[in-house]
Amino acid sequence: MQLPKAELHLHIEGTLEPELAFELAARNAVVLPHSTTEELRRAYLFEDLQSFLDLYYALMAVLCTEDDFDRLADAYLARAAAQGVRHAEIFFDPQAHTARGVGIGTVIEGLARALDRSEERHGISTQLIMCFLRDQSAESALETLEAAKPYLHRIAAVGLDSAEVGHPPSKFREVYEAAAALGLRRVAHAGEEGPPAYIWEALDILGVERVDHGLRSMEDPELVKRLVRDRVPLTLCPLSNVRLRAIDVLEEHPLRDMMDAGLLVTVNSDDPAYFGGYVGDTFHAVHEALGLGQEQLRELARNSFLAAFLDHDEKRRQA
Ligand code: HPA
Ligand code: ZN
C-alpha cells in the first residue's frame, strides 16, 4: 500500500516519457535528436542543472496541440495515482512553449482538460502553478503574466524555475508584486544550485509561501531558524539532486538532518521522466538510502498535505 500523499514540486514537461515523446514527434512531424527510446534514455546522464535543461527544452518541441498537453498531464496523473498521490500542484513553463509559437491558451486549455477529469478518473485533486523562466528577462515574465490574464481562474500560483545561478529572485520583484495583486499565491525555486542568499530573497523580496528545493538552507543557521520559525515548507527533490549532481549520492542527502532541524520538508519528483522515478519511487529510495522508517515516511506524507495549497479543513482530513 502506498502512503497517500500530495506532490508539490512537479514540472509537467518533466513527465514526458520517451515513448510519448516519440509518439508525439511522429504525429507532429518533429525530428528528435535521438532515433530510439533507448538511445534517448542513454542521454539522461546530466552534469548539472543546465545540461538537463538543454535536453528538457529540446524535447518539448513535440508538445504542440491541446491534445498533446492533455495526453501529457493525463499520463502523469495515472502514474501518480498508482504511487499514492491524492493531490498534485503542477508547474508548467509557458515561455518554453510560447517561444516556439505554441499559444499560452493551448498549453493551459490542454492541461486543464486532463486536470478537469482528474478527480473522477484518477482520484487526484490538482492545481496549476505557472512558472517564469528566470534565465529570461523580467519583462518577458511580465508579458507572460499579462498573457495569462484570461486564464487566471485556472492558475493557483506563480513560480520561478530554470537556470538558477546568476538569476537571483530579486530580478523578479515586480512580476511577483503584480502576481500577488492579482490574487495569485507565490513559490520559487531557490537554493537548488544557488546560495542561501537566494532563499532569503525569495522569502523577503518575492514573498513566497513555499520554497522549491531549498536544498542549501542548511548552510545558513540563521536561515534555518527563520524557515523553522515561520513553518515555511521546502519541496525537496532528492532523486533530482543526485541526477543533477547537487549531491554525490542519495546517502549524503540532507533530508534527515533537515527533518531533525525541525524544517517542514516534503519529498517530490521534480522531473520524474528524467530523474529515475515518480514520487512513490522517491519515498522508497529515501527509505533505502537514508534509513527513514515508517514514522518518518508518514511524517513526510503528512507534511505534503500541510504544505499544500488546500484549504484548512481539506488539509486536516488528508493529513
Ligand atoms: N530546476 C530548475 N528548473 C527546472 C527544473 C529544475 O530541477 N526542472 C524543470 N525546470
Ligand atoms: Zn523543479
From TrEMBL:
Q: Does the keyword Electron transport apply?
A: no
Q: Which reaction does it catalyse?
A: adenine + H2O + H(+) = hypoxanthine + NH4(+)
What Pfam families does this protein's entry cite?
Answer: A_deaminase (PF00962)
Q: Which residues form the Adenosine deaminase domain?
A: 4-317
Q: Which domain of life is it from?
A: Bacteria
Q: Does the keyword Zinc apply?
A: yes
Name it.
Answer: Adenine deaminase
- What organism is listed for this UniProt entry? Streptomyces flavidovirens
